[in-house]
UniProtKB/TrEMBL annotation:
Origin: domain of life: Bacteria
Alphabetical list of CDD domains matching this protein: Ferritin_like
SUPFAM superfamilies to which the protein is assigned, alphabetical: Ferritin-like
Name this protein carries in UniProt: Diiron oxygenase
Record-linked InterPro entries: AurF/CmlI, Ferritin-like_SF, RNR-like
Family matches, as Pfam families: AurF
Residue ranges the record marks as coiled coil: none
Organism: Streptomyces bullii
C-alpha cells in the first residue's frame, strides 16, 4: 500500500476541464474470469440486481436543473444555519464575515470529493465485473457501474454549471483509490469501495441532502444516497461469511488494509484544502478540525455505517477498534457494546 504525507495537499485548483485532463494511471496485475455456470437467479445479490433495474433515474431529466444557484450569494437563514454550522464558535478559524464564503467553499469541497469518489466507484466496480467469480455478482456490479456513471454525471454537471469551483481530490482519497486500482484481490476491492468509501459516502450524502444550501444539490444527494444503500448491501452480501474460513495470514492482510484505509479516510476530513484556498490560518484550521467537538461528532457519525458493516462481516478486530478509538472515530461507550 502506498502512503501520502500526513494531511498533504497539492493545493492546486482546477477548472473541471483541467481536472479531467489530468490522469491518474495505475499499473495493475489481476486475474479476470468468466463463469459458465449462469446460476439460478434466486440469490440475494440477484434480488438486489432486480431492485437496481427498476431504480434507475436519469440525471438529465429527473433533476430540476433550472434552479438558480449563485456561488457566494448570501444564504437564507434556514440553509445558512444548517450548512457547516460547526464553524460557529470561539475556536473557529473562520471569521464571522467569511462565514458565507466558507459555507460555499465547504459545499464545493464536499461536492468535489463526492465527484472524485464517484469516479473511483465507477472504475473499481468495473474491475469487479472482471474479477469476481460469481455470475450474479458480475451482473450486479455491471448495474452498479451504470449507477456510478450517472452519479459522476450529476456531480460533474452540478460543480461545473452551478458552482464553478472544483477542488482537487483529497490526498487520502486519492491514495485509497490508487491502492484499490492496483489491488488484485477482489474481496479487498469490496472492503475498500463498498464498505469504506461508500459507507462514508452514504452518511455524508444523507447529511448533505438535509443541510446544503440549494434544492439542486439536495435532490442529487438524496437520489444518489438511495443508490448507495443498495451498493453497500451488495458488498455486505458478497462478503458475507467470506472471512470465516480464511487463514490467519489472509485475515491479517485484510486487517492491515482496513487499518490503512481507516487512517486515510480519517485524515480526509481535516478540510486543509479549504483553509488553504480561503487563505486562513492552516495550522489553526487543522487543530480545529481535529479537536472541535462538532467536527469529531461529524466524523463519528460518518464512520457509524462502516463500523456496523465490519461488525456484520466479523472484521471489527481489536486492532481496528483500537484505531477507531485512537482516531476518535467512535465514542468509547459505543465500541464497548460490540
Ligand atoms: Fe455512487
Ligand atoms: Fe456506489
Amino acid at each position: 500500500m502506498t502512503t501520502v504525507p500526513d494531511e498533504a495537499s497539492d493545493a492546486t485548483f482546477f477548472t473541471l476541464d483541467s481536472v479531467t485532463a489530468e490522469l491518474m494511471e495505475v499499473d495493475a496485475v489481476f486475474r479476470a474470469c468468466m463463469n459458465w455456470n449462469y446460476g439460478h437467479r434466486d440469490s440475494r445479490v440477484w434480488s438486489l440486481y432486480e431492485k437496481n433495474k427498476v431504480s434507475q433515474w436519469n440525471a438529465t431529466t429527473d433533476i430540476d436543473w433550472d434552479h438558480d444557484v449563485r456561488f457566494g450569494a448570501e444564504l437564507s437563514e434556514e440553509n445558512g444555519a444548517k450548512l457547516a454550522s460547526f464553524v460557529v464558535g470561539d475556536d473557529s478559524p473562520v471569521p464571522r464575515e467569511l462565514l458565507t464564503d466558507f459555507r460555499w467553499e465547504y459545499q464545493a469541497w464536499m461536492c468535489s470529493q463526492f465527484l472524485h469518489g464517484e469516479q473511483g466507484a465507477l472504475v473499481t466496480t468495473a474491475r469487479l465485473v472482471e474479477t469476481v467469480p460469481d455470475i450474479d455478482a458480475k451482473t450486479y456490479a455491471a448495474s452498479q457501474v451504470a449507477d456510478e456513471a450517472r452519479h459522476v454525471e450529476a456531480f460533474a454537471r452540478y460543480v461545473d454549471e452551478k458552482l464553478g469551483v472544483v477542488y482537487p481530490i483529497n490526498p487520502g482519497l486519492r491514495t485509497l483509490l490508487h491502492d484499490l486500482l492496483s489491488e488484485s484481490r477482489w474481496d479487498i476491492v469490496y472492503l475498500g469501495m463498498q464498505v469504506v468509501v461508500e459507507g462514508l459516502a452514504i452518511t455524508a450524502l444523507r447529511l448533505a441532502s438535509s443541510s446544503f444550501g440549494d434544492p439542486v444539490i439536495r435532490q442529487i444527494t438524496k437520489m444518489v444516497a438511495q443508490d448507495e444503500a443498495r451498493h453497500i448491501a451488495f458488498g455486505v452480501t458478497a462478503l458475507n461469511g467470506m472471512y470465516a474460513d480464511v487463514t490467519a495470514a489472509e485475515l491479517r492482510e485484510r486487517e492491515d488494509f482496513l487499518l490503512e484505509a481507516i487512517r486515510l479516510m480519517s485524515r480526509r476530513f481535516m478540510l486543509r484544502e479549504i483553509w488553504e484556498r480561503m487563505d486562513l490560518d492552516v495550522e489553526r484550521g487543522l487543530r480545529f478540525a481535529r479537536h472541535n467537538p462538532m467536527m469529531a461528532a461529524y466524523r463519528q457519525m460518518l464512520f457509524q455505517q462502516i463500523i456496523h458493516v465490519l461488525r456484520q462481516l466479523g472484521m471489527l478486530s481489536d486492532k481496528v477498534k483500537e484505531l477507531l478509538l485512537d482516531e476518535n472515530l467512535v465514542r468509547p461507550e459505543i465500541m464497548q457494546l460490540s
